[in-house]
Trimethyllysine dioxygenase, mitochondrial (Gymnodraco acuticeps), 413 residues
Amino acid sequence: MSVMLHRILRPALKPAQLLSAVKNKQPLWRHETLVSASSACDATIRSLEDCLEVNYGGAPMRFNYVWLRDHCRSDASYNSSTNQRNLDTASIDLSIRPDNTTVQDGHLVLTWPGGHVSKYSLSWLAENSYEKNKQSPIQPRILWNSDTYKKANIPSAKWESFMSCDDEVKKFLQNYLLYGIAFVDDVPATVEATEAVTQRVSLIRETTYGRMWCFTSDFSRGDSAYSQLGLDRHTDNSYFQEPCGIQVFHCLKHEGTGGRTLLVDGFYAAEKVRQQSPENFELLAKVPIRHEYIEKSENHRNHMTGIGPVLNVYPWNDEMYMIRYNNYDRSVINIVPHDLVRRWYVAHRELTNELRRPENELWVKLTPGKVIFIDNWRVMHGRDSFTGLRQLCGCYLTRDDVLSSARVFGLQA
Ligand SMILES: C[N+](C)(C)CCCC[C@H](N)C(=O)O
Ligand SMILES: O=C(O)CCC(=O)C(=O)O
Ligand SMILES: [Fe+2]
């Protein structure tokens, strides 16, 4: 491939400095090197003062020199079989600049002072540039209310194919990532089959409630879930520092009335608050709230607390990643000054009003055979009060493990 090198010479020094520079053998000119490669993967490169500008297709991309040295993919710098860095980042001169810059066969090739050569494929650079990534969310989602969810007509996975076909699990995970809920139908109404379905997705997270749990309204634990009472929308484990990422439910039996499951997209409601009153959104994203689970019975002793804002937002792009909303388990507010407390209640009321809009409520009756996976960092669940024997089994999963499964399938998560 032919590579054309154009040197654009620009005075780097003021005339008065020139003389001493000559004496001290310093470079007189700062080089802005334009490298244009005439091939299918045309790229032009400009060396700027503190970064390299790469024009390759889309918008110009800028890469800091230390970043480039740090992200060198040569064997000495990076172990490509473990995908781990070998290079000690602290050994890089923070004012490093390459001595030579070229484009060869779709690669940017840099020669560093001392002779080390780094090669980066242009497509890898484009994929990993700030310019490419600044626009996209960490996790793409489709926020919903009852109507839009129903209209989307998302198919449930089916037990048979789910258990035998990876592609079925991939489709299921894609729906789960986008909507925060997903269903598997025709599952045998047993704890074992529920466990098997879950394990197709990921690891089960054991908690104080057990690994696989099966519960009914017997007050076996100190929590209203173990009653026949209706439960308002909430997320579980708000009293964990890291609430479980997923909740799995399978209703194995119900001989009675009521007991439908309520689902509400918490992010949909919170986005409404963000649009209507950014200051309330900010309060919900900043004010620390404690949740607590205190259990003191013959068989169980627990005292868990989790502290964090109701809305958890990535600080670099304001994207929401977790909502912690459970009015039952919310603990004493005692680390917030009174005037902020007043404003927080106003913000909390606005969010609650949004969460309670009937058009945001998706009601489903869980029946034997239907397993639901709920994103417990996003979608709230609740239930009608009920009569009769109702047996629910399920488990929790850790979010990291589920997202890992999704990425292994090539999904963005
Ligand atoms: C699901 N399972 C019945 C096992 C536990 C229920 C835990 C309920 C608790 N109030 C919470 O919101 O975390
Ligand atoms: O009984 C139900 O449908 C759900 C109860 C509940 O909120 C829970 O177990 O986390
Ligand atoms: Fe719950």
